[in-house]
Q: What sequence folds into this?
């Protein structure tokens, strides 16, 4: 992996992330946006309740325009998932599928929704063997047989992580689709890949006992991790020690400047709480981008 230093890294290419990039990069600093715009909840939506929008506009078109603006102003776009964030040598080290970026400040703007399998047994057994967060729950499955369901980087990275805890790890995937380096790690690791199949049902009464696959075979496991997309903001935040709301643990707590409890980490958009509206996301992205840029410049000056 290549390694580089950026002033501000923004995780999420939706309205909050792109607006943060617009305001941050205009402060004459280096800015990188990580993520895929098509993963934004607005991508498949139709927008008509946003100021300046006449009639009904496709969310995908708004994102296309936003990406063009961000690039025009000088920010870099990297359409890759983030696998990990950690503090290292005075920076926030952000690991993607192919690169390692050291950031002076980070804006988390990934949204909150986690995709579900929508199969029988999933809802009933959530918290009883069904999990959506490897980093949160891996420790509960020491020496157990587990499966990860998914095709992308989060699924592969999660499966590799679980090999350090579980006795057996299966990756259930229609088709594994990751970068070369992750693919090499998967091939060299202990994960048992079951490709060209999917989950029809999750078995168990009070706890997960197995997965019924498309070919009607049963994979006996004690846990199943659903990872349908990029690594969730909650997992990244938990690893950094970012404080979540104390009542529901569904969003990141921020102050009036979109700052979290960790200096240099900001959050904006759906991940920062209700209401889940584009107008709020854009407003918070504006504030987060400016504040992150200010913090990054202060850090840069302090080390000069």
A:
């Amino acid at each position: 992996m290549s390694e580089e230093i950026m002033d501000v890294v923004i995780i999420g290419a939706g309205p909050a992330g792109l607006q943060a990039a617009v305001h941050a990069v205009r402060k004459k600093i280096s800015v990188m946006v990580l993520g895929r715009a098509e993963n934004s909840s607005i991508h498949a939506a139709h927008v008509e309740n946003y100021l300046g929008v006449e009639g009904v506009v496709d969310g995908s078109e708004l994102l296309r325009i936003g990406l063009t603006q961000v690039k025009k102003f000088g920010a870099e776009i990297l359409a890759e998932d983030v696998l990990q964030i950690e503090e290292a040598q005075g920076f926030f080290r952000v690991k993607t599928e192919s690169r390692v970026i050291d950031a002076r400040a980070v804006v988390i703007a990934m949204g909150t929704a986690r995709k579900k399998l929508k199969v029988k047994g999933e809802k009933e057994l959530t918290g009883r063997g069904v999990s959506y967060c490897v980093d949160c729950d891996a420790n509960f499955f020491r020496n157990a047989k587990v499966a990860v369901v998914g095709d992308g980087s989060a699924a592969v990275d999660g499966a590799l992580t679980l090999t350090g805890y579980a006795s057996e790890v299966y990756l259930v995937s229609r088709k594994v689709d990751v970068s070369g380096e992750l693919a090499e790690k998967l091939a060299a690791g202990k994960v048992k890949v079951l490709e060209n199949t999917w989950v029809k049902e999750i078995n168990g009464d009070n706890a997960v006992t197995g997965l019924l696959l498309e070919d009607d075979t049963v994979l006996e496991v004690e846990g199943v991790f659903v990872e349908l997309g990029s690594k969730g903001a909650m997992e990244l935040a938990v690893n950094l020690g970012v404080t979540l709301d104390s009542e529901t643990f569904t969003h990141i707590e921020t102050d009036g400047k979109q700052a979290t409890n960790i200096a240099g980490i900001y959050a904006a958009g759906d991940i920062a709480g209700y209401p889940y509206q584009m107008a709020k996301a854009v407003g918070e992205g504006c504030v987060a981008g400016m504040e992150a840029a200010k913090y990054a410049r202060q850090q840069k000056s302090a080390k000069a």
